[in-house]
Amino acid sequence: MSTATRPTLFVTGAAAGIGRAVAERFMQAGWFVGLCDVDEQGVQAMQRQWGPEKCIATHLDVTSPEGWCEALAVFERVTGGRLDVLFNNAGIAVTAPFEQADLARHHRLIDINLKGLVNGCHLAFPLLKNTPGSRVINMCSASALYGQPELASYSATKAAVRSLTEALDIEWRRHGIRVLDVLPLFVNTAMVTNEVSRMKTVSTLGVRLGPQDVAAVVWRLATAPAGGLPTHSLVGWQTKLFALLSKLSPDFMNRLVTARMAGY
User: What value does the mean pLDDT take over residues 90-116?
Assistant: First the structure.
């Protein structure tokens, strides 16, 4: 099967963690994957491992519209303009009391987690529109369910991603595009190990998900019949439980539980 006729996936933050697990899941299934990351050496190593017939590796800083245009242009040339699934995965965290983290770190997080995702949706739209049955899958988080102490700006960006996903899933259905997101709790990635694990909430709840758990949900959202898919997919029993409790419990109780788990 030629590259132009195979289903295609474009992944940001593909060099490690969830992005890498998703990319490898799709390559194993015969998809052609665009591997994009600021870690250019990392995605190039993946391309050498999997071979150019299965993937292409490009540098991409998601905060740069010009970078998006260049990476998408390379992808378009290789795939003949086909983009079945855009997986907006790139993201960072700031774990600290809000006022103790440098303002520049908060701004950088917003630029990557939210503005980078807006860049991707906006600039990939022409390719998505021209690919029948295309989908956007956005990396969200259980922190979007209720703002998390010491993850304030991260939670805010994920709540914005959730709202953006809802709005675009309504707007873009007229173009035949589904826009979906995935909401896991803590996942065993470098970001959680190196940054988020300092939160008391992590020691309270544990890290019970791996990148493969998220990849399995992304695979289902990419391949199942589009009409029956939920806009939001909760990953793991803990996330599903917290989402249910947040709906059933009064706001003061959700606030109290969130504060106690975080040690406040």
Answer: 97
